[in-house]
Write a structure and sequence with these properties.
alpha+beta; Beta-lactamase; five-stranded antiparallel beta sheet; 20 strands
Length: about 575
């Protein structure tokens, strides 16, 4: 009997402890996780047809010291509404209200005349101080309701990365950028506060354990606000100076794929885009547009040749100014013969014939294999929506000419993000990284998930990447803009590209070009790789070295100083 009593006491104790634990967990969810939900419901008084006050997770930028800067958040204000069925003397009411806030009298009187309608909204986004003055009037039939809306404190800053909120049918959700890609994390389902007691407990418990990306939370982006604004300022200057159709850039860590800055001009203000007539401005051309990138692809061809062992930096060939392939003749950009020429001079002088020679030594199949290893046949997997596929079908051609032109970035069209990813192979020791703009997901309840920066596959040998890096440093030190970009204390590797723009009618325009530029530094242990382009600049006979070199070197100096990088020479 005594043993049975002890068992019953133990069972009873377990039940009591379990119930207490369940109530504790429930209290935690109600007071901590769902506190804001209940506050919003109380504020809204169930008057608006939408049900609850709009709420959504926050997107943060992170500065170089780890401080969080709000990039997409909520702003709070109030809605002024009336109940025409009980409103007395609308003229007098209008007179009193208009002394506090601006109201269209004609619209107010029209709404007040709907005496059978219990609810008419007059105006929105009224600040709190004005709301208190209106409430103090104590007018019967006049009500104030709390509202929240999406707000971007930086205005245009990183707008193509952040995206916007918008309607698609009846659904109001993220439509571009991070707002769309991570909509499942940012969205807040207010129905949760009515969930069954036990379902609520175990559903949220599972959230904290699995930390699945579909669970509610906030985003911490890799975007560094000062770097982002500096890049944007540089792009605006380029765009304006050369009267270009479009100008863009990316600053990324070549070893981790973290994107410090990404911008395109022209852009938009996500706080007020009602006047935008062309919806394409909301997209991110760096991710969802493809371009023929031109000569910045040449270092990849050289890297492939070195890695395969068919050339070295000192290998030479006889440059007669052109090479014939199938029915085509490919010329150097200057239409000149350069005689006995080394691979270093191919990069210094950006010779089309030189990289065609490398493809000939590799063979078409092996050249295509290397371009595939550099990720040109796949999407990068960046955490932004609508990433386009590169157009590289020319690599499947049985003809030499398509492979020769691909070797200097013509005949294949790449996204900007795919381009910087491929070029990072030379900067990071030969690996293929995954670019990303989110560093961490912060979930409700204090749990978080870091985005892994695991190294990608090794696509060329480390020694091969180092050899090309030395060649690109030599380009900067001696050849590019006459060696004026050389930094006495830091090694910088870089290359320019000036590509013809394909015409939809076949062939290429005579007067449209894409100028591109990439570089990384400190070259032998780089912390940054920078990619810039400007589309259809009005430049006459100038090249990318004329339009983009100085902005690049200015950006490199800013980053070196801002991050206080140690000199490497």
């Amino acid at each position: 009997m005594q043993i049975n009593s002890i068992k019953r006491l133990r069972v009873l104790s377990i039940i009591i402890v379990s119930v207490a634990f369940v109530f504790f967990i429930k209290l935690y969810f109600l007071q901590i996780l769902h506190h804001e939900d209940f506050v919003n419901i109380a504020d809204n008084q169930y008057v608006k047809k939408a049900g609850g006050v709009f709420t959504r997770g926050t997107i943060f930028f992170e500065d170089k010291n780890g401080g969080l800067v709000s990039a997409a958040t909520l702003k709070t204000g109030y809605i002024l509404a009336i109940n025409p069925s009980i409103l007395k003397n609308p003229e007098d009411v209008y007179s009193k209200l208009s002394e506090i806030i601006e109201i269209n009298k004609e619209d107010f009187m029209a709404r007040a005349s709907k005496t059978k309608d219990p609810y008419e909204e007059i105006t929105k986004r009224i600040p709190e101080d004005a709301t208190k003055k209106i409430q103090a009037l104590g007018i019967t039939g006049v009500y104030m309701y709390k509202e929240q809306w999406r707000f971007y404190p930086g205005g245009k800053t990183a707008s193509n990365v952040l995206g916007i909120m918008g309607y698609k049918g009846d659904e109001y959700a993220g439509r571009y950028g991070l707002e769309k890609f991570y909509n499942n994390v940012l969205v807040r389902n207010q129905d949760d506060v009515y969930a069954n007691f036990f379902v609520e407990i175990f559903r949220n418990w599972q959230k904290t354990v699995s930390k699945d990306d579909s669970f509610e939370g906030d985003l911490v982006a890799t975007i560094e606000p000062s770097v982002q604004t500096t890049l944007e300022d540089a792009l605006v200057k380029i765009h304006t100076k050369w009267n270009a159709a479009e100008t863009g850039g990316i600053i990324m860590h070549p070893k981790t794929g973290e994107i410090y800055a990404m911008a395109d001009v022209p852009t938009f203000n996500p706080n007020d885009f009602s006047g935008e007539k062309n919806v394409s401005v909301f997209s991110n051309p760096l991710v969802d547009n493809v371009r023929e990138m031109g000569s910045i692809i040449k270092p990849l061809t050289i890297a492939a040749g070195i890695d395969a062992g068919v050339i070295t930096p000192t290998s030479t060939y006889n440059d007669i100014g052109y090479v014939k392939a199938n029915t085509m003749t490919i010329w150097n950009h200057d239409k000149k013969a350069h005689g006995i020429t080394s691979m270093q001079e191919v990069l210094n002088n950006s010779l089309n014939v030189g990289v065609s020679y490398v493809v000939n030594k590799l063979g078409n199949d092996r050249f295509t294999d290397y371009m595939t290893k550099f990720g040109l046949r796949e999407k990068t997997g960046i955490d932004l929506p609508n990433e386009a596929m590169n157009i590289v079908s020319n690599l499947d051609s049985p003809r030499d000419v398509e492979h020769y032109t691909a070797s200097f970035g013509q005949g294949i069209a790449l996204t900007s993000i795919s381009t910087i990813r491929a070029l990072s192979v030379m900067a990071n020791g030969g690996t293929l990284v995954t670019p990303h703009v989110i560093k961490r997901l912060n979930y409700k309840g204090g749990f978080f998930k870091n985005i892994d920066n695991n190294p990608g596959p090794q696509v060329i040998k480390k020694e091969s990447s180092e050899a090309v890096t030395r060649m690109l440093v030599e380009v900067v030190d001696t050849a590019m803009i006459g060696g004026k970009g050389k930094n006495e204390h830091y090694t910088v590797a870089a290359k320019t590209g000036t590509a013809q723009v394909a015409s939809p009618n076949g062939g290429y325009y005579d007067d449209k070009f894409l100028h591109s530029f990439f570089g990384y530094f400190p070259a032998y242990d780089p912390k940054f790789i920078v990619f810039l382009y400007t589309y259809d600049p009005k430049v006459g006979d100038l090249f990318a070295a004329d339009t983009l070199a100085v902005p690049f070197f200015d950006l490199s100096k800013f980053l070196i100083n801002y991050y206080e990088l140690q000199p490497d020479r």
